Amino acid sequence: MTTKFNVDGNANAAVKSIIHYDEVEKKLHVENTQDVEKVLEQNVKDQNNQNFRLNGFEDMKMRRLASIPMIEFERLAKMGIMCYSGKVLDRARLFKYLDDSNNEKLRIWKGRLS
Q1: Residue 28 has what DSSP assignment?
Q2: How far apart are CA 38 and CA 90, in angstroms?
Q3: In 10 A of CB 71, how many CB atoms?
Q4: Which residues pair with 6 in a beta bridge?
Q5: Phi, psi (5° rounding) for residue 39?
Q6: 48-64 pLDDT, tens per residue?
Q7: What is the pTM of this model?
């Protein structure tokens, strides 16, 4: 039998966590979820409006490449590409990840990265 515990103290938190306790195996399993639709919809709007310029950095030719939901940072951290704070640990692998057609909804600037 499995018992579920909702551990979110903030109902407005982006990432929702549930702890599952497996009484047979005597193990805890953490399930994190996030509704990412708003982020992905905003990414499409920003793509269509070419809203990839960074205010104050126009002269530096910097672009906002992507907007990544918080739940995706967990996956990227487990892959060793980013840490949980958002720091990029492996730029080449991040660019390859963002260039992958499966992740195109994360992208704002559509140019090739890798």
Answers
A1: E
A2: 27
A3: 16
A4: 18
A5: -65, -45
A6: 888 877 777 666 677 78
A7: 0.74
